[in-house]
Amino acid sequence: MRAAEKKILANTKNVDVIVAFDKQTAEKHAERLKDEGILLHESSIDAEGIAVPFKEIVREMKGIPIMRNSAAIGSLAKILGMEWEILEEIFSKFIPRKTELNLQIARKCYDIVEKRFELEKLDQEILPVISGNEAIALGALEAGLDTYMLIR
């Protein structure tokens, strides 16, 4: 993941954030992390970075393993200074099944990070969160696409 206060204009090998659920992922991608980047990882992994017990929280809340993604998103949202209400809206829009349990798991991790770190809030406008498909479509429209035909 890459993030910036200004527009990102080109692809690069270096990343701002790595979320690792296992040691192999943390080690494999560590070299790509920028000096000021964030490694958010499962607390059972011995690694430098921000450790959160994703697996334990999901198990404790009777979730399924894929819900570790919600745990990571909740943690990352707080690290990046996102307001909880915005994250709730995103979950409701993009995770329609079992939204409530996913939200509870995300909230628990959001709160864990909040207790561990005091983060400076950026003074900037709130930008929309969109999917990759939506971003590509908006980019095509901005570039001048006025007709699109799908022929099957």
Write the layout of secondary structure elements.
Blueprint: E1 15-20, H1 23-29, E2 33-42, E3 50-52, H2 54-60, H3 68-79, H4 84-94, H5 99-116, H6 132-142
Parallel strand pairs: 1-2, 2-3
Helix pairs in contact: 2-3, 3-5, 4-5
CATH class: Alpha Beta
Query: β content, as a range?
Result: 5-15%
Proper CATH architecture: 3-Layer(aba) Sandwich
CATH T-level topology: Pyruvate-ferredoxin Oxidoreductase, domain 3
The average pLDDT value, as a whole number, equals 84
| Assembly annotation | single chain
The count of domains is 1
What radius of gyration results from the CA coordinates?
17 Å
Measure the end-to-end span.
34 Å
Report the principal-axis shape: globular
Index terms:
152 residues, 6 helices, Pyruvate-ferredoxin Oxidoreductase, domain 3, alpha/beta
Characterise this structure.
The protein has one domain (15-122): Pyruvate-ferredoxin Oxidoreductase, domain 3, CATH 3.40.920. The longest helix has 18 residues, at 99-116. The chain has helices spanning 23-29, 54-60, 68-79, 84-94, 99-116, 132-142; strands spanning 15-20, 33-42, 50-52. The protein has 6 helices and 3 strands; from the N terminus they run βαββααααα. Strands 1-2-3 form a 3-stranded parallel beta sheet, with helices on both faces. Strand 1, helix 1 (23-29) and strand 2 form a beta-alpha-beta unit. It has 152 residues and is of the alpha/beta class. It is globular and about 50 Å long.
